[in-house]
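WARN retry 2 of 3 for item q-0093 after timeout on previous attempt; input resubmitted unchanged.
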Amino acid sequence: MLDRTDREAALYRVALCAFPYYPDRAEVDPGYTVDEDIEWCLAPLGARIIVDGVGLRAAIREVITDRGADRQAFITRLRELAAG
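OK item q-0093 returned
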C-alpha cells in the first residue's frame, strides 16, 4: 500500500516531466530519454509497485508523451495502487 505522500510525489514528478516534453526532444536534447523520466517518476514509490510496475510505466509514458492522454485514468490507477 502506498502512502499519500509517495503517491503525490510520483504524480508531481509525472507532471514535471510531461510539461517540457515534445516529440523530437530526444533528437534535439542529446542524452534525453523518456525512460529515465519514467524511472524518476517511479522513484518515490520504491519497491511497492513491483506487481503493477509494467502497467504503471506504460501509463506514465502515455501521460508524458501524449498531450491528449487521459490523465484522470492515470490518477485513478495511482489511487488504486495506494488503496492496495
